[in-house]
Amino acid sequence: MQYKKHIITFSKLGNFLLDDSNADTLKSLFSSARNENSWFTEDNVKLAIENIAKDYLNLAQLEKYISQYDIQENLSPKKIGIVMAGNIPAVGFHDLLCTVLSGNIALIKLSSSDSVTMRFLIAKLYELDESLKDKIKIIDRLNEAEALIATGSDNTAKHFDYYFANKPRIIRRNRTSVAILDGTESRIELANLGNDIFQYFGLGCRNVSKIYVPIGYTFDKFFEAIEYWSTIQLHHKYNNNYDYNKSIYLVNRVAHLDNGFLLLKEDKALVSPISACFYETYENESHLKELIAEQSEKIQCVVSKERKFTNSFSFGEAQTPKLNDFADGVDTMKFLLNI
């Protein structure tokens, strides 16, 4: 079957991305992506590419993933429009992967913020298997799409729902992620939480923007543990956001905590601005579950100590989703196979 051939091709891409002999080629990619989007530092692009190679393009993992589905030879492939986001490097790659493995045709509408990285990956796939030129196409308009997978804001989601009202679709809206602390976390666990907050400057839906803490919790140990992230303030865009938000809090006399590069503010809202993180207190486990349940439709993932909270990730795992960690909890492969 075709998907078996494609699995081999994708795994070869993964091997290429992890091969030290290709370091110069990849370094040029990282630099070009940074030039396109200044939020995409070379380190962040490298991190995203390595995570894709390790977690999406490992042959054994791909075979295990695909074995969960009953995939038949697709004699009438559908054209799947994929509107990719551009907040994190190559964030739309999983949708491309699922579309090809399901036997359908991916019509890719790239984000202007992340065209360099995706064009590179697609070109490398063409190089490994020319037949994929018929399976993966970069397009400007979605006129030919028979189904849609789109990632964007709540506002853009309304437009997609309107224009594709009569077609199968997955429309992803604004989401964010949260952390749960109980006060027993080690320094290493709190440091790993720092990764969940700061990686990619907090621009992703899997970045933690809200922390739930027990009543009476103090953040001294948390601030100490994340101090190694202090160099994030050297990035001018991040630091501009920090200076702006700090000035707003000070002018408006908003109570907050400040360690010099992160602002902590008590707030019931989920989505905090860049350089800030909201927190909210809970009384007990029952109260905590109620708070999470109230916001479940807006939460992408939850991180907690040793994954104690139901369906949560361990600290530091938020930005390393596996093949079956679907955005918004919607099984992309199942959707594509049932069109």
Brief rundown of the structure:
The chain has 339 residues and is α/β, with parallel strands linked by helices.
Describe the overall structure.
The protein has helices at residues 2-18, 23-36, 42-55, 59-66, 93-101, 115-128, 154-163, 187-198, 220-225, 236-251, 285-294, 332-337, and strands at residues 79-83, 105-109, 136-138, 147-151, 169-172, 176-180, 208-214, 257-258, 263-266, 276-282, 299-304. The chain is an alpha/beta fold and 339 residues long. The protein has 2 domains: 2-174, Aldehyde Dehydrogenase, Chain A, domain 1; 176-307, 3-Layer(aba) Sandwich (Aldehyde Dehydrogenase, Chain A, domain 2), CATH 3.40.309.10. The strands form 2 sheets. The chain has a 6-stranded mixed beta sheet, sandwiched between helices. α1 (2-18) runs antiparallel to α3 and α2 crosses α3. The two termini are 19 Å apart. The model has no long low-confidence stretch (mean pLDDT 96). InterPro entries: CoA_reduct_LuxC (IPR008670). Keywords: NADP.
Write the layout of secondary structure elements.
Layout: H1 2-18, H2 23-36, H3 42-55, H4 59-66, E1 79-83, H5 93-101, E2 105-109, H6 115-128, E3 136-138, E4 147-151, H7 154-163, E5 169-172, E6 176-180, H8 187-198, E7 208-214, H9 220-225, H10 236-251, E8 257-258, E9 263-266, E10 276-282, H11 285-294, E11 299-304, H12 332-337
Parallel strand pairs: 1-2, 1-4, 2-3, 4-5, 6-7, 6-11, 7-10, 9-10
Antiparallel strand pairs: 8-9
Helix pairs in contact: 1-3, 1-6, 2-3, 2-6
